[in-house]
Design a protein that fits this description.
391 residues; mainly alpha; 2 domains; 0% strand; globular
């Protein structure tokens, strides 16, 4: 009941984020039901059904990432005193976040079920009723129990991801403000903060190398379109994960470079802010970098890859790819909004010290141009290397 009240009394921005999450859940639910209908229509093609279900895991994982980003943003915007007065402490906050996330995702699953029944012809009185009857196997009986089980999977996964993102961290360092970051800590704490980013760089480079190796193997393989598809998807999963892991470390290094070697006020503000936002902004922008790298690779192999994968492409594949891009872009925008709201107290302190707004805008432009330029170059290089085996 408290989760319903929080959803009903949320701000317009929070309602918009919940609607974005509900739309993503609706897309994943519809994709799962479509794959179920395709498996019912072709019972002899078990291999294609398994590949279709594996393909659904990618948009499902992207939806979980979006749910975690929305949960982190709302955790920072809620009034802690009001929740504490209601008996909601740090230990019970993940359960409350999971409940409110499940409410939004159940709305999306209900929309997916209605859309699926409508396109099958079950609600033929409405416009476009039964327009996808052949694709959704309208001539086959609809398994209600299996459909409901599949529709419960995205809300459960999103709720688990939201609860994990807002779990209490008793040994976490208190936040010193994103406008200053790790550089404003004492000397020992700043060195300790560098270790996770260096480890992330190493793990990210390793994942990128593994993903590119899988792409090379898939490009040189001649075992059929199905094996090529599995290799391409598996390689890109590793590449995107590597970019998401390596991006926070790159942001930390860029911030340290900006704030080193006798920096002025502009470079110092830009470097400290970039170090403070490395964790919250780096990972979503790394995922966007993976999407851009995929677009570069698709442009490089245009005309050769569809010939190998012509039998496996279709509207459901396009829907899954569109859902992945939608969730990643929405996660990045949510993280940017979270970072902006987190900078507000530090910016207010700087205004009281007499720092003009023009200086803060220039600092934002400096760190944005440096980090986004580095990510753009990285995306182009990864996309070209991944597309090289398919030429």
């Amino acid at each position: 009941m408290l989760a319903l009240r929080l959803v009903r009394g949320a701000s317009p921005a929070a309602i918009l984020r919940r609607l974005l999450l509900a739309c993503a859940t609706a897309g994943v639910g519809f994709l799962l039901l479509a794959e179920l209908s395709h498996a019912l229509a072709h019972p002899s093609r078990r291999g294609e059904a398994a590949i279709g279900l594996l393909w659904c895991l990618l948009p499902l994982a992207a939806t979980v990432q979006l749910a975690a980003a929305v949960a982190r943003t709302e955790q920072g915007g809620r009034t802690r005193s009001g929740l504490a007065a209601a008996g909601i402490g740090a230990a019970r906050l993940p359960a409350l976040t999971a409940s409110s996330t499940a409410v939004s995702c159940l709305l999306g699953s209900a929309l997916a079920l209605l859309l699926h029944l409508h396109l099958r012809g079950g609600l033929s009185s409405l416009p476009y009723g039964g327009s996808a009857a052949e694709l959704l196997a309208a001539d086959r009986p609809f398994p209600s129990a299996a459909a409901l089980t599949l529709l419960c999977l995205p809300p459960a996964a999103a709720a688990a991801g939201a609860a994990f993102a807002t779990r209490p961290r008793p040994f976490a360092r208190p936040d010193s403000g994103p406008a200053f970051g790790a550089g404003s800590l004492p000397r020992g704490a700043a060195g300790a903060e560098t270790v996770p980013y260096l480890a992330g760089l190493l793990w990210g480079v390793a994942a990128l190398a593994a993903g590119l190796s899988v792409e090379v193997y898939a490009g040189r393989s001649a075992t059929g379109a199905r094996a090529v598809l599995v290799g391409v998807v598996g390689g890109w999963v590793l590449i995107v994960l590597g970019l998401a892991v390596v991006a926070p470390g790159l942001a930390q290094l860029c911030g340290r470079l900006l704030a080193s070697w006798r920096p002025g006020a502009l470079r110092l503000l830009a470097g400290r802010a970039l170090q403070g936002e490395a964790r919250s902004v780096g990972q979503p922008l790394g995922l966007v970098c993976g999407v851009v790298a995929g677009a570069v690779a698709a442009a490089e192999v245009h005309g050769s890859l569809p010939a190998a994968l012509g039998r496996t492409s279709g509207p459901l594949t396009a829907l899954g790819a569109g859902l992945v891009v939608y969730c990643i872009v929405a996660s990045a925008l949510t993280a940017l909004v979270e970072a902006r709201s987190g900078r507000a107290p530090a910016n207010a302190a700087l205004f009281r010290l007499g720092v003009p707004r023009r200086t803060l805008r220039r600092a934002f432009a400096v760190r944005a141009l440096l980090f986004l330029g580095l990510l753009a170059a990285l995306a182009w290089g990864v996309g070209v290397l991944a597309a090289f085996p398919f030429r």
